[in-house]
Amino acid sequence: MLMDDSSLPEIGPLVGRAQGLLLTEQTAQQAVSALAIAAKEAIPRALGAGVSLIRDNRPTSVGATDAFVLQADNLQYEIGSGPCLSAWSEGRAMLIEDTGTEQRWQTWSDAAASTGIRSCFSVPLGQEPHGIGAMKIYAAAPGAFTVQDQKVLANLALSAAVLLGHIQASDTPQRISATFKETLRVRDLVATACGIIMERHDLPEDEALAHLLGEAGTEGLTLRELARSVVRRDSRPGTSAEAR
To answer: Of the four listed, 135, 157, 200, 226, which is most buried by Cβ atoms within 10 Å?
Structure first.
């Protein structure tokens, strides 16, 4: 059964605990490990999940749920190419429908296919290129991940970004608070854009999000950039403030 928004992990309590405990790198990574496990359990066809944390252009794997996740990640790091690294460097989600036919990262995809990985979905941690890393899920079947699955991982990645954002700064509580506020702002902006698309094209929520994701990929924009553009173009009262 697919998760809906009401069953997704709440970011607020996680951040509240983070601020109260002044999270160390170790405890933050433990929390992210729990989010990776949640991704594997929440997405029916996911075989494994994990996070790649990148500092000073050096990637490391955090919270991998299975040994093959580490193997797949390490291969990306060795060859310097793959969907997770691209999600991080470009600041946008990367979907591989079938590693057997994927051309963008052919060396990695061929190797992944030989180990039984056929689908991959990677989401950046943060909304800008070269953020703090990326979160990913792997599956054994081609075309494994639905739009709803992608939405679930995107929400979990927001939580992971909040928990890990402090590692690159010494002002831990202030950094987490600022990241949390930005995360909520981006989520509200995307939700507003989805509402506009739903009304404009008479679409259900899943299809409206798929429309936004597809258009963002076509135009080479992040989801936040496209959502801001959609909201700014809308003439309804009260929506323009969301785009600022």
So the answer is: 135
